[in-house]
# Entry
Amino acid sequence: MPELNLEGLVHVYREGGVREGGVRAVDGVDLRIGPGERLAIIGQNGSGKSTLVRHLNGLLRPTAGRVLVDGVDAARVTVAQLARSVGLVFQDPDRQIFAGSVLAEVEYGPRNLGHRGQKLRSAVETALAAVGLEREARTNPYDLGASRRKLLALASVLAMETAVLVLDEPTTGQDERGVERVRAVIEDAHRDGRTVIAISHDMRFVAEGFERIVVMRAGRIVLDGSPEQVFRRDSWSTLESTFLEPPLAAVIGERLALGSTPTDASLIRALARSSA
Amino acid sequence: MLVLEGCSYRYAGAARPSLRDVSLTLRDGEVLGVVGKSEAGKSTLCLVASGLAPRTLGGTLSGRVLIDGADTAGRAMHEMATEVAIGFQNPGTQLSGVATTVYEEVAFGPMNLGISREEVLRRTEASIDALAIRALTQRDPQRISGGQQQLVAIAGLLALAPRHLILDEPTAQLDPAGTRLVSDAIERLAAAGASILVVEQKVDLLAGICHRVLAVDEGRVTLEGAAAAVLGDPTLHALGVAEPSTVRLRRLGSEAGVSGQAIEGALALATSRPSRGTDA
# Structure
């Protein structure tokens, strides 16, 4: 299981002729992500979250600094090699989906990894079942609604069984059940010892499903800690500076002086204790 | 005022209709929320209300779509578009693809309305400020983040100054501050007399801005009424729609045996959020 190390990562987008100097989307990030960690990245729109994670599988190359996957500089290996250990699910599934059927879409990744026969079938079946698309194998992806296309994009990366799973806003456009599925996928991956990194704007989702939260502002990390640490009152002004708000449960808990209660469950427990 | 009367719609080549006998009235100055699980027909409802289905998409529509009491059946899409604006779920689909800067992108819609240059610039400037995207105006719309694209797409819609606005999950990719900018813009537009239909998974947002909410399931309207009553309806949760935070906390509290008084006391503290300055 690989460890990920970002060392002084900088990424500048050059925009031909629009402005000189380009846009510093990631501006000096040091981050170590241990094997099996569940890490959420939060921050305002345009704070560099998606740019950062696209370095993990080599889709983007650093302007400066390094990305080490298991000690190996990601710049020295091909995207195809990185794809064996790091799977990335895009925010917009339509940037990812291209095959004519759900089955072909999910098979594509593991096939490219060289899987055939029973191993291929089992990886595909497991991935489709995980997102509830097992009965849609023959369906054209574009006959699925947007939320199920998003789950399909997730399945196609799950089927590659990578040690690291990177999810860019996995819950957007999902109804309550879709969010539950995404939660379950993350739980399962975690139980299997895989590393899960997710970008999200859903504070309740990150507080409930991740042990570690990294907060980004203008290309830099401004907070890094457990949900209890990141959402406690001391952090609110920093959160506000990157246009974030703590989850409702955290706000209530602090105002009632119950301590840091970032999840509904922790708030309800604290309320039960204090009113008992 | 936009009215749907007994509308059923089947996509071209589809075996079954995606919308079944839907009637609704979207009054001037009203924000009407729409909730439902995935593939319940919410986006189809948006496409029918905007006139894109069937004009651009083909398929079969029965029933009537009326604007200010007049049947729109004979109107071409470019005529509908001057009355009803629609924001798609995926902002990448919304962007014109021809603008090289965000500023041009926001101005693209009003420029095509045949209004004066001064008015185009005034609306563009106002929309840019309303969604706080001033810093992006010289960027390439294709090379900004997904959430930023969503703000730009909505700014482009505001610049049309539409009388009727249909929004399909307008805040899906937005951070909490961006979500608030959009909800404030919706409220201002409605206060100025526009009628707005909003599909959203964020039920707390709907609870805050909607006058009425309707729930859709399997292409039909299953509930309709005041926002708090519909969003708090337990049958809705059973259908797979999230509960508003206050409803969820009351339920979790009661399941854990916390007194109603303690829960209500806690919820009373939750009405103002820290970034509105109360804990500064």
